[in-house]
Amino acid sequence: MPIRYFFKQLILPPGGLLLLLLVGWWLRRRAPRLAACCFVLGFGGLWLMSLPVTVEWAGRALETEPALEQAQWSSVGMQAQAIVVLGAGREQADPGWGADQPSHIAIERLRYASRLAKASELPVLASGGLHFGKPPSEALLAAEAMQRDFDTTVRWLEERSRTTWENALYSAEILKAAGVRRVVLVTSAAHMPRSRWCFEQQGLEVIAAPVGFLGVPHGRPFGGWLPETRAVWQNGMLLNEAAGQLVYPLLYARSE
């Protein structure tokens, strides 16, 4: 995990863009033109990543699965057999809570899954393994939060996964053993296409229930053309998802 994490952070923005700036500085005397090219690409990439309007454009491109309308929430109980909610990291040792907690993105997913569970009366599976190998699992934190904060019981815990592919692989093992083949999948909107593909590769039928859309009007002043700290983080997540959508079919596609 640490090696994969190191190279991922080094290559994907902002790490890769900062590396371009460093290379440009190093080449400033040896190859001025190449140095200028590296600088323009690095600086331009960082500037684009800082813009809310880039978040909106990228979100629209990646968030291809439509939202599940509230009028459909109760009816999915007749179309599916379970709800699967994917983890999204954890915050370690939060002093305010005195313990590890699901990340705010995970809480957003859990809240949505809870609403769906209450409307549809479907059982819930929480999927998410250890954070860099340290307990508790994301699935266990999710189950505790759903029970305590949203009064929703989680029936199954999938606690081994480290990637979206493993979310699907290990969740499918649990669900198939329980006779479940059709699921409502809850995850972030940009993450949904890749997640759905992974679960369908495991032979499950999926009803997409995305939440946390970024490709919507951002409401920032000046049309979102002013740099913003939050936009850097959001664009980083979207770039990570774009890379995942390209790489996953190459790594995991099953032969027919």
TrEMBL record:
Pfam families: DUF218. GO terms for cellular component: plasma membrane. The keyword Transmembrane helix applies. The chain crosses the membrane at residues 6-27, 34-55. GO terms for biological process: Gram-negative-bacterium-type cell wall biogenesis; peptidoglycan metabolic process. Residues 81-244 form the DUF218 domain. Keywords: Membrane, Transmembrane, Transmembrane helix. InterPro entries: Cell_Envelope_Assoc, DUF218, Rossmann-like_a/b/a_fold. Gene3D superfamilies: HUPs. The keyword rRNA processing does not apply. This is Transmembrane protein. It comes from Pseudomonas saudiphocaensis.
